[in-house]
Fold this sequence. Notes:
By secondary structure, the chain is an alpha+beta fold. Helices cover 25% and strands 30% of the residues.
Amino acid sequence: xxxxxxxxxxxxxxxxxxxxxxxxxxxxxxxxxxxxxxxxxxxxxxxxxxxxxxxxxxxxxxxxxxxxxxxxxxxxxxxxxxxxxxxxxxxxxxxxxxxxxxxxxxxxxxxxxxxxxxxxxxxxxxxxxxxxxxxxxxxxxxxxxxxxxxxxxxxxxxxxxxxxxxxxxxxxxxxxxxxxxxxxxxxxxxxxxxxxxxxxxxxxxxxxxxxxxxxxxxxxxxxxxxxxxxxxxxxxxxxxxxxxxxxxxxxxxxxxxxxxxxxxxxxxxxxxxxxxxxxxxxxxxxxxxxxxxxxxxxxxxxxxxxxxxxxxxxxxxxxxxxxxxxxxxxxxxxxxxxxxxxxxxxxxxxxxxxxxxxxxxxxxxxxxxxxxxxxxxxxxxxxx
Length: 384
């Protein structure tokens, strides 16, 4: 009976967690692509608390640990050297803005990450769902570090922060049916906690607080970015089949000397012809091998071969290529060589180019207006 009361108390706390009154916070699903069965929660700084079945606050101080495991659709919560409680939900609230905790998946084993804010654990189907409620600026600082690295200058970080904030607000309800806003995976935005933050990143987030990129003064843009464009970004419709007026091809000289600007892949002619045949493109053995050659000096949407075509985006996805910006050449031995440029989908901001622009003295507004056509930077509260 006492355990049931404890579960009900945690349920009431978690319901308020799922509907936060503080508009400056966000809920992020942690380790969302992994079916975690056991977490180790450790207080890293400050204090955390939850309510016990006797309706008094249980406080966790720095260094205190909880072992949270999924057992038959129920959470087993154990403090080191003590017994276990069995609940369906567990809410651990940071007592102040300095509170932080580490979370280590113990089964399956994964690297530990450190987070700010509070955390809700629920018993899901075959997994523990961990949800971090965190201040938006704390979240964005972590995302900028994960998505943009930690060795660039502040103007680049400002540009990255505006794009990450724009994405956040445009996709605020992406996982709402699951009880949180965004997850920590790349298909939302990479979020690895505060492990790699630095002062320049936090300063950039604070300096651009509430700023977003919009089209026609009110429309939050699709805030796309990628590692390296290979010297030219591409139209959105080439990759996503959706033509967006602010995502148009831009010649980019700022990324030309970077390590990821060029790549190469060799494929046997037999495999290449089999791949083309599988996609409905027949190659007559009597035809010259030169028919397979295709020079993509500027961005194209389709590889044209043997009187037919196949989308470069499809080839990239099928072969796991770094980009869809490549030329096809048959060498003297009959080997197919893909001469590629860039890394990523090539749409929106080229991060390598933006980093170099910042180093050359361009501001974050210069950077964003270079890669996105006819946009403006506005405060989010001005859009209401």
